[in-house]
Amino acid sequence: MSDESDDGRTLGRRHFLAGAVGAGLLGAGVVGSGAVDIGTGGAGQRRLPVEVTTLDAVGSTAGTARVPAPAAPTVVDCFATWCGPCIEQMDALGTAYDRYGDRAAFVSVTNERFGGGLGADDVRAWWREHDGRWTLGHDPEGDLLAALGANGLPYLAVTDGSGSVVWTHGGVASVETLDRRISSVL
Predict the structure, then answer these.
(1) Of the ranges 32-36, 70-74, 134-138, which one carries the lowest mean pLDDT score?
(2) Is the pTM of this model over 0.85?
(3) Relative to the CA of 138, which of 22, 39, 48, 146 has its CA 20 to 30 Å away?
């Protein structure tokens, strides 16, 4: 992949600007893990499930997906292509997917808006480069982040088969932590 986008601006600048904007939109802090009560908030609060657009990419097909998946434990990963820790998180997610992908749904969702040098092809290239191989979603309005109460990236959630969120985590989670959290809902 070239270091220059088609209009001559560097991808590094795009990633920096996207990170600055993302940090402002999400808040600078990273939250700890804990249970989240989704869907019981006041007027205007977004609730799960959320429909996201899915991209045609390795392990994913174009269309839409319900998050969490109906009647299945679901591992939800909120990420961005500009997010360094999100790259680190992909290794642990890949290992967890290899172990549990036949018993739990996995979905990674970015809320990055397309345009200004970033498009679906860029996200697909990032996905391929970082060994993504499960459902890849796009939620430019940030409905999923809002429903989960996420205020930083990466942000993970695990739901049980009924769609109840049983665990959330801001920041990078280890393979061991993902093992414990996913196995607890199987």
Answers:
(1) 32-36
(2) no
(3) 39
